[in-house]
Amino acid sequence: MLIGIFGTGRNGSTLIQRLLDGLEDTYVHPIEEFFLTAFDDLARKGRVFKLTGQNCRTRPLRRLDDPLTTTVLSKYFRTNLNALYSEHIRACPATAHLPDISLKDLLPKQQYRVSELIVEYLRAIGGLVRPDLKFRHFMFKSIETPYLSDYAATFPDMRFIHIMRHPVAVCSSQKRSLIETKRLPGWYLGYDWLTCMMNKRWIPHARFLQSAMGDPKHIVVLYERLVSAPQAEIGRISQWLGLAAPARSDTQTVFHDLDKPSWGYYLSKGGIETP
After folding, report:
1. How far is the CA of 201 from the CAs of 16, 181, 206, in angstroms?
2. pLDDT of 37-89, one tens digit each?
3. Which terminal CB of the chain, N or C, has fewer other CB atoms within 10 Å?
4. How many CB atoms lie within 10 A of CB 228?
């Protein structure tokens, strides 16, 4: 089973991903991915554009049926694998010994369509970090909220976890992250932070959820409820998936119930470590 966590960013998607780590037979990918939008850019122009990396775009995806070679795909995934190693594999005592790898080391075929790439990529990484386990399900998180319909069409059996947070709180957190923590101007995030967060992320997400209301492949989690009752919400999601909940559903873990000494700093509160 393929499972996606979708949110706008600054709305708890990282928190829920870390709390769901340890879900029965499930590899939970610890970094954010732009699978469909990056694939479309690579198929069109051979590179990923800045607005895609900022998730500040809504134009239709036209090239998702194209096969891409692992050489072309490596242009995008090299950065992601570097982040996976520096932020998680090297930072987790149980996996720190693993050697560096490339996308070609992970994926044996010469080319992939996006419909087969995602699961194979996640399966290969799951096997790398936890060779002692045989994962049957694969979970990732993304902020590609304008393209939820494309995900649903590409993966008809996929399950969707949607996390929503009050839009004022989302925008406030994003602005603090840019200006206070990263020391970037408000216009850095594609047009400006408010246009990006509302018009390119939050509103498309809300509209999709309205259209998907009643669809059993989708579940909605409120950020405010998650932080007030994490075990209850993780239990509700686990039951919906038909899988046993993580053993420590109120604790942030990585690579299926492994610990890290530190989770770094809050992006929207400079100098404060993540508890």
Report:
1. 18, 21, 9
2. 999 999 999 999 999 999 999 999 999 999 999 999 998 899 999 999 999 99
3. C
4. 10
